[in-house]
Amino acid sequence: MTSFSCPLPIMKHTNVQLAHGSGGKLSADLIATMILPRFANLALNRLNDQAVLSLPPGRIAFSTDTYVVDPIFFPGGSIGELAINGTVNDVAMSGAMPLFLSVGLILEEGLAMETLHQILVAMEQAAAKAGVQVVTGDTKVVPRGKCDKIFINTSGLGVVPEGLDLDASRMRPGDRVIVSGTVGDHGLAVLTSREKLSFKTKIQSDTAALHGLVGLMLKESDQIRVLRDPTRGGVATSLNEFAATARLGIVVEEAAIPVHPAVRGACEVLGIDPLTVANEGKLLAVVAGADAARLLAVMQGHDLGREARIIGEVVDEHHGLVALRTGLGVKRILEMPVAEQLPRIC
Amino acid sequence: MTSFSCPLPIMKHTNVQLAHGSGGKLSADLIATMILPRFANLALNRLNDQAVLSLPPGRIAFSTDTYVVDPIFFPGGSIGELAINGTVNDVAMSGAMPLFLSVGLILEEGLAMETLHQILVAMEQAAAKAGVQVVTGDTKVVPRGKCDKIFINTSGLGVVPEGLDLDASRMRPGDRVIVSGTVGDHGLAVLTSREKLSFKTKIQSDTAALHGLVGLMLKESDQIRVLRDPTRGGVATSLNEFAATARLGIVVEEAAIPVHPAVRGACEVLGIDPLTVANEGKLLAVVAGADAARLLAVMQGHDLGREARIIGEVVDEHHGLVALRTGLGVKRILEMPVAEQLPRIC
Fold first, then answer.
1. Which of A9, A43, A57, A237 has its CB 3.0 to 4.6 Å from that of A135, i.e. a possible disulfide?
2. Which residue of B27, B42, B62 to mutate against A (max A Cβ within 10 Å)?
3. In chain B, which residues have their Cβ closer than 8 Å to the Cβ of A228?
4. From the candidates B22, B42, B60, B108, which should be mutated to test the interface with A, based on the most A CB atoms within 10 A?
5. CA gap A81, B257 in Å, rounded
6. Is the Cβ pair A103, B231 closer than 8 Å?
7. pLDDT band, residue B2 (cuts 50/70/90)
8. pLDDT, position B1
9. Angle between the A185-194 and A261-270 helix axes, to the nearest 10 degrees?
10. Using one digit for the tens of pLDDT, what is the confidence trace for B35-67?
């Protein structure tokens, strides 16, 4: 959890005004007082309309994500951590080392400066922990009722190791599917906090930056085919995307999938399949069968992979489809969810 | 103006549903049917969470901007052109050649597919005209009333020519300030269309991608100190930023500043200073005095610089301040606007 030990800077207004997005003096105040102290670095400090960056040679991974999560604070994090970690992870799933982020804020007129500050501090801490720099940004303010408190876009840049090309099209029959830990934590944490559902055990979001784990994995095996962080749509969606791209089948062992008991309980009560629920600190890896056990062991040695499991296998059957083998030994098709089970989860 | 000759793809829903942002099947449908055909290219088509790009060697310019303009269609363009051209321009003001964009959409539940399509077609056409590729994206949907129709974030990447370092800190006394054309067009076009004000002459937004003009200028002079597109806050804000960074003064000749007669008239009626109004297809350049006339001539030979003028000079006086010499020969301080004159202009 973020600690809010950093005091709110002294601002003339206790709430965000339309003029804070005008591009004039109040915009400059907001940036100088609230934002720059959080992310100060040479590129950002120049306050040009763009950052000029020297990147190590190599291909570049470029990703973008907009965060509209409701509520903006939830057990285990806030929209702030999510906006940093989510884009770091999207960059990292190419095998790239994330280096630089942009931040685009949309603020609702009237948002408490204190709330904005808490979110910016959470972003600062998440960026520092992930070792990425926020180098360019933009802040817009819309009238009351024209957005919901705050929306954040982050785009990310990283450098892809030479020769690495992770893509589901590289999957082969016999490959194993590994998940890095329990599934469904983030979605359930947001849902239960939004709907004020009370479950005995507090479910926490798993929001975390995964590029450290990815770096370790790439060192262990050069037979990793593809990585993905199963966010919206959950593990079911990512595996279906893999199968469709590879034109191969995937068989998943239901019993092997790690689910936190509190999440399992809540999902049963709510009639939700944890495989379709968003994660924000987990990854799926498809790896050659021969490397799977070694890779798993390395993952389990990392904080973010302690509960990693091999959950399935790539097969030359039911091409484009994912089959789930249940505890009873029955195989059923695991479909991509059609409709929105949990809107505004990230 | 954009022509909407491209027919709306056949979609099951005539309006955006929450499920179109779920990450599941309907999300995939929306992307495959509405978005991919607009921007298809090798990087985007892979539909990974990130694009892996090979950039020419050199430093990279990285910029982000979020567009929340109201109304989303206005004389001369729409939020679609704005979202492409605005970020292309932010990248180009470093002297970089813009190459790649990301697009993050926030859609309001219920938005007409037809409206979304018109905006995407406008983006497609603007990107094609600017010669940039949309290589990665993200689409979120929020419930009715939680945003205002559509917000768009774009982030941009470009490559900075070797040795080039445009920054206001490089300004010197005797440098000249050039504006590439009439000021205030965009802001007034949006304002008059929003407020349903009717003026005899239709005022059109100047939205345009400026990197072609910039390329020409950089070829003509290696003594360009800094470039900026005066968007929110207008010319007054950009010049004040220049003066503050350079710790020098700027004197601007009011009579030299090109203002379209219709914009001038509307500003007089509304009590607005056109120097504080947003532009979306104009740039300010500060250049060594010796190169100013030559640079101006080259700019006037380009479609987007026909009405370029030398409007002022950098002076070793009133450091950090901009003075405006009026028609009467009186000098007054030209301040950065404090408050929001025209909210949601971009």
1. A43
2. B62
3. 48-49
4. B22
5. 46
6. no
7. very low
8. 43
9. 60
10. 999 998 888 888 888 999 998 888 999 999 999
